[in-house]
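> Could you send the ALIX V-shaped domain-containing protein prediction when you get a chance?

Sure thing. Input:
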Amino acid sequence: RVRSEQSKYEGMQRQRSSVINKYKRAYQEFLDLEAGLQSAKNWYSEMRETVESLEKNVQTFVHNRRAEGAQLLDRMDQDRSASKSNQAELEQERLRGLMERMSVDPAKASPQTSTSNRPTPAPLFQPGQGPRYPQSNFQGQYQVPTSPPPNQATYPGYSSPPPQSTFSAPMAYNPSQYGRTPG
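Output:
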C-alpha cells in the first residue's frame, strides 16, 4: 500500500513538474514575445522619427527648389523684357536709318520720322524707265529692291528676323535672335 501511494505520489510529482515546465516555457516565450514587441515598438518609433525628419527635409528641399525656380523665372522675365526693349530701340534706330537712306529728298528726312504711320514712298522711276538705285558691283544672286517693304504688323512675344542690308550677303541663321519659341 505504501508503494502504491508512493508511486501515485511520484506520478503526481512528475505530472506536476511537467505542467510547471510547460508553464515556465510559456512564461519564457511570453517574456521573449514582450521583449520582441518592445523592440519592435522602439524600431517603429525610430522609423517614424526618421520619416518625419525626411519629410521635413523633402518639404524644405521642394520649397527651396520652388523659390529658386521662381527667382529664375523672374530673372528670365526681367532679362527678356530688358532685351526686348533694347531690341526694340535698336530696331527703331535701324528702321529710321533705313527710311532716311531711302527717302527721295534727303533734306526733308527728319530723324524723328515714325515708321508705323508713314506711307510707303512712291518709286522714283516708273517700271521700265530704269533702276531705282544705281547698279553696284556686288556678289550673289540677290536683286536690288525697288521700294521698301510695306509696314508689317508686330505680334507680342515674337520678334521679326533682322532685315538684310541692301548690298551685303545675308547673315547666318542665329536662333537666339528670334526669342524663345512657344511650346
